[in-house]
Each structure stands twice: as structure tokens, then as C-alpha cells.
Amino acid sequence: MFSWMKKNEKNKKTPEVIHTVTEGLKDLYKKKLKPVEDYYRFHDFHSPALEDADFDNKPMVLVMGQYSTGKTTFIKFMCAHLPNKVLESISLIDTPGILSGAKQRVSRGYDFPSVLQWFAERVDRIILLFDAHKLEISDEFSEAIRALKGNEDKIRVVLNKADMVETQQLMRVYGALMWSLGKVFNTPEVLRVYIGSFWSEPLMISDNRHLFELEEQDLFQDIQNLPRNSAVRKLNDLVKRARLVRVHAYIISYLKKEMPSVFRKGNKKKQLINELPVIYAKIQLEHHISPGDFPDCAKMQEQLMIHDFTKFHSLKLNMIGILDEMLTVDIAKLMPLLRQEDLETIDNVVQGGAFDGTHNGPFVEGSTEGILEGIEDEEWVVTKDKPKYDEIFFNLAPTDGKLNGIKAKNWMITTKLPNSVLGKIWKLSDVDRDGMLDDEEFALASHLIEVKLDGHGLPPELPRHLVPPSKRRQKGSAE
After folding, report:
1. What is the reported pLDDT for 17?
2. Residues 6+ apart with CB under 8 A from 314
3. CA gyration radius for the chain?
4. Model-level pTM greater than 0.90?
5. How far is CA 335 from CA 231, 235, 330, 347, 464, in A?
6. Beta strands, E only, 110-197
7. Are strands 403-404 and 125-131 parallel, antiparallel or unpaired?
8. 441 contact partners, CB below 8 Å, separation of at least 6
9. Longest Cα pair distance anywhere in the chain, in angstroms?
10. What confidence category does residue 372 fall into, taking pLDDT thresholds of 50, 70 and 90?
11. How many whole angstroms from its chain centre is CA 323?
């Protein structure tokens, strides 16, 4: 008896301990979902099989838009130079500009919507950019947007170049954009549209500066929190995939059951394909499945044309049972771990580049030629223009020899540079980090503004030759 108990204990498997949500999702996919996908040839109709990298990768942001809407410039806002800390926590994916007309679709040489669909199923955020001057949605752009179906919760819309439009006209443009989006996106939820001008040049019309600043902060906060929400996104995507796999299994097994084994197979196949909408309705009622879980009917009909229905598999209830158990039981078991990870990663946000500071926003690093001016001179390069900067400084009525942030900002925004750039200049100029600017720091800020207006880039850190003379010993000791 004793020897039997020892043998039984030896053969008993120790339950696998899951330490992270990602590990749990990976385990569920390999053991419960992928076998069903393979059996019912899911990958021939829908998405390729998932790999470990699809679970382990860092959050990804897909940027889409028609030609010349500012996609590449938008990406440069977030990480304008390499190496960049931003890319340690997220990946940014640019896409080819979308043009109107059939020529663009033909000349690509690959199935562009299918590529977008593959990415849409794997990314954490999809940014659709529109130009405030051209809101028309081309045929190819409509196809591209349709490829995002099922991932509408990931989509954010950016109405870019809004500083080129007067306030009254901007309201009309915004309304027209919402109307156009409503025709393309057949969803009850209204897409979030951010209005702004995501570049580092002076705003052409600065009347809506405050609106742009608030919109920029909201958008960047949404992107900044992607690492924290990554596990939730992966869980939701796996649930959506599992539901589609279950529906696919019902469709394939139904077609298999209805096919004759010998005669009139060709005619029956055509009949079943034509009746696919009716088959969808039957499966929906019989198995109490939501209509949103079904794949696009027209696309499914097109794919079925090249398949032999007699090679499909019949319904295996044990497989469907395992799938249902995964959706109702196993996923629920991961929820406590998900909440624990959320508490542990509360500070896990995107940092660096555009996210370096609360209000700094994006900025583009251009040529550093202007910053290098005076690097070999003994005299501070700002000194030659300091008298004119001092006149402005004292006219702003400093208190105890310093300007607070409000007074300084009210003057700085007259340059029409975006708040994102001015925030970067403030950070570089407030050398002693006291939240105020003395006359030398103000002169430095004015110098950096002129450098930027001349088309040069800003450095990530203030070079030593630009540090105000009175701060050099202090800064040197701090280093």
C-alpha cells in the first residue's frame, strides 16, 4: 500500500505556476487555442499562428494616414534622435502614405490591407492622421480602415496641421471629419479625435494654442500609459481571437456536414457559399453567439472558393468544450494576477523624448549647428545680445530679480513656437531648477528661442558653453 502511494505521488504532475499574465496567456494559447486553430485550418482563413514574440513584445503604435498628413513628422515628435529612451518601452511603426486612385493600389505589389490587418491584431494603439486641409477618405484609405475591423478600441484619430485653420473654419473641419468617419466606421462608439499641430515650427495661427496643448497632453498621456495596459490588451486580443476561432470551427464543421461525399459536390459548394449569410444566422441562433464574433461574410465567401469542403473536419464537442472553458474559467483565473500587475506597474510609463517631463511634449531635433555657436569662445555666446534680452526681462516686471513661470510663458508664447518646444526650452534654461528665470536664464531662453526659429535643433542636455557664467561653478559642483 505504501509503495503504491509513493508511486502515485511520483507520477502526479505538479501544477505549473504562472507568474505573469503574459505567461498565462502564452500557456493558454499553446495548450487550448492553437490546437483548435490547427484542426479547423484557422490560419488559412484568418490570422497566422501566434508566436512567443507576439506575447513578449513591448507595446506597439501603428501610425496610418494618407500621403502628406504628417505621419513621419508625428513619429519624430516622439523620438527625434537615436538612441532614444522612448523606444525602450514602445515601438513605433510608420506606414506608407495612402494615395487616392486605383494606380496606387495596383503598384504596391502586395496586399496592403492584409498587412495592416496583421499589425492591427498585434499593436496596442492605432493612430489615424488627417490633414485639416484635405479630409477626403480615398478608396484605398477606406479599404485600409476596413482592415482594422474588430480593433476599433485601439484607434485614435489625430486632426493634424490644425494651426493652419481659423477657429471658425476649424469647427467646420472637425464636424466634417466626424461625419466622414461615421460613414467608414460602423460602430456605435464615437472615435476620440485629437486636434493639434504636431510639429516644432511656429504656429501659423496661434488662437487655439491652449486647446492644442490640452489635446497634446491627452494624446501623449494615452500613449504614455500603453506599457501599463499592455497585459490587458493582450488578454482582450486573445479573447477576441478565441471567439473568432470558435465561430470558425462552427462554420467549417457545418460546411463539412452539408457536403455530399461523392456526387454534385461542385454545385453544393457554390450553393453553400451563396447561402453563407443564412448559415451565419443559423449558427448565431443555435449557439447563442454574438454577431460581432463572426468574420466578414463577403471575405469568407471569397476565401471558401479555393477550398475543398470535403477535407474540412466535423465538429468535435470536446474541443469546443476546452475552448469554452478557456473563455469562461481560465481567463477569469488570470484576473487577480492582472490586478496585481497593474498595482506593481503603476509607474511603468513611456519616458524620454516627447514624454520627458509633464508638459514638454514633442520636439524635433534638427541641425545642431546653432547650438555649437560659441563653443570655442571664452566669452558666453549669449553676452553679445544680453542687453536686448535684459530690456525685455525688466519690462516683464520680475520679482526679486526673477520671472515666474506665468510671466515667462506669456512672453514666450508670443514667438508662436509650440508649447512642446517652449517646454523644452524652459527645461534647458531653468538651470538651477527653481521654477523661475533670472536675467541670465531668461537671456539663455531667448537665445535658444532664436536658435530654434533659425531652424536648428535643441540639445537633450544643455552644453557647458551655454551654461550662464554665474551658474557654471554651481553646475560643475553638482555634476
Report:
1. 64
2. 253, 256, 257
3. 29
4. no
5. 11, 10, 9, 20, 51
6. 125-131, 155-160, 193-195
7. unpaired
8. 429, 430, 431, 432, 468, 471
9. 99
10. low
11. 30
